[in-house]
Amino acid sequence: MQPSIAPTVVLLSQGDELINGRTIDSNAPWIARKMSDMGFHVIGIECCPDDPEVLLRVLNRSAASADFVISTGGLGPTQDDHTTLCAAMWCKKPLQLHEESLTRIRRIWSDRGLEMPASNEKQARLPEGCEVLTNDFGTAPGFIVETDQSTAFFLPGPPREMKGIFTKHLQERLQKHHGVEPRHRSVLRCVGISESRLQEKLSASPMPEGIQVHYKASLAENQIILDAPEQMDALHFEKQAQQCASRIGASCLGVDTPPLSEFLLARLIEKQDTLAVAESCTGGRISAAMTAIPGASAVFLEGACVYSNEAKIRTCGVTPTQLSQHGAVSQSVAESLAIGMRQRAGSTYGIGVTGIAGPGGGSADKPVGTVHIALSTPRECVHRKLSLTGMRRDRIIAVTTSLSLDLLRRHLQAISP
Length: 417
Fold this sequence. Notes:
This protein is α/β, with parallel strands linked by helices. It has 14 helices and 17 strands. The chain has helices at 16-19, 27-38, 52-65, 83-91, 99-111, 159-175, 195-203, 234-248, 260-271, 285-291, 309-316, 320-326, 331-345, 393-412, and strands spanning 8-14, 41-48, 68-72, 95-97, 125-127, 131-133, 142-146, 151-155, 183-190, 212-217, 222-229, 252-255, 275-279, 300-305, 349-355, 370-376, 381-387. Strands 2-1-3-8-7-6 form a six-stranded mixed sheet, sandwiched between helices. It has a five-stranded mixed sheet with strand order 14-13-15-16-17, with helices on both faces. A four-stranded antiparallel sheet has the order 10-11-9-12, sandwiched between helices. The two termini are 50 Å apart. 39% of the residues are buried.
C-alpha cells in the first residue's frame, strides 16, 4: 500500500514590523514545527506588509498552491489591520457583526474597569459563515474560512494568543485530518562541533531507508533532526537515533535532551551539586544562560562579572604577580577565577572565563579570539584554551558561553574535554 501524500500548508505572517526587520517572526517557525510533526508538508512561508492589495495577492497565491493556509497577524482594531477584510474578499463573503465575539470583547474591557474603545468593534466583524475560534488570551477572535480552493485559518499575531488558539482549536482537528501521517522525530543536540563535521560523521554510515536527516545550525549548538513515518517500528527508529548519537560521539548531549543549560541544571539538581561563575569576556552571559531557567536558584549560587584586573583580584583572589607574569588572558588567571569563585561561593563547581572578545585589545601573542576557560571541581581544575580568531565579538561571546557550560557537561558525563 502506497503512503498517502501529505497535505500541503503555506504559512502567512503579516505586519510592517516583520518586513522592516524591527520584529523577528517567531510564529511561523513554531507553527511549521507543529505542522511538520503532525505529518503535514509545509511548502512555504510568506511574509507581507500591512497592505491590503499585497495581502490579497499573497493570500490568493498561497491558497492556489496549498491545501491549507495558516495566517497570523493583522486581526487588531487599528486602521493598518486589513486581514479580516482581505479574508472576506478572498472567500467572496461580506463582513458581518459576530455578536458573541463583540460581547466577549466588551466583557474583557469591562473586567479591566474600562469601557471598550469603539475601534475594537472591528475585531468582531468577521466573514459571513466563517467558523469563529475563541481567544482566551486577547480580544481578537480567530476564524476559519473554507473555499473550493483551500482552507484558511486566521490567527492573531501575538504569540501567546496564536499558540493558545492553535492548541485549543486547531491541533486536534488537524491531527485527525484524512491523509495525515504523524512521524517519529528525534533531536540530537551537539556542542563544539561544526555542521560539516557532523555530516562527515553521519555520512560514514548511511541511515536506513525511510529515516530522513536534517541539520539545524546555530552558534550555541548544532542539531541533527531525524524523522520517519509513524508506520516504522518505534524501537527500530529509537535504535537508529541512539546509533547516530554514538557515531557523533562526545559532542552529542544525547537523544531528545533539553538545551545545554537546561540539561546541566537537571544534572546538577539530580546530584545536589551547585555552581558559581566568574566571567570576564562573556560579561555575564554564562550566568544569564543558567538563571534564565526556572529552578536555577536550587543550584546556581553566584555569578560575578570581573572585567577589570582589580575586580579579578578583589573578587576571586587573582594575584598581581599572576597578572604581571601571565596577563589577564591566561590559563593561570582563568584557573584562579574558577577556584576563587568556587571557594567564595562555597559551590561544588566554579567556572572561570577570561579572553579577548575584540574588536580591539589583541596582540601578536594573544590575538582577538584568544579565550581561556577553566572548571574548578572538588578534585581538580580543568583548563581549555579556545582560539576563536576571525570571529566577531558577538560570536566569540556566544561560543565561549556555550563551550564553558559544555566543559562542565563533559565533566558530569565523565567525558574528556
